[in-house]
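ok so for the tutorial part 2 we go from a plain amino acid sequence to predicted structure tokens. step 1 is just haveing the sequence, like this:
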Amino acid sequence: MNAPRQARIYVKSPRGPSISGVGRVGVVFTTDAASLGTSPKQSYSVTVRTKGLGLPVHHAHQFCRDYFLDLDDGLFRRHRR
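step 2 — the prediction. this is what the tokens look like for a chain of 81 residues:
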């Protein structure tokens, strides 16, 4: 993404029907707070179900680095590198 670690990433479109794949679930993220159409939000919990919720890029990156979704059984598994 080449975004600075201290930049923030926001949920632009909360978890719901995918805009790129029929029958799939997706989330749209942005680093542009002005594109949200609402005021950015901060929270102590992490969710992709709240529009405008933001985290620092370095914090958000931790959630996708070590885990992947196994589409065959719907379980999160630890990714071994």
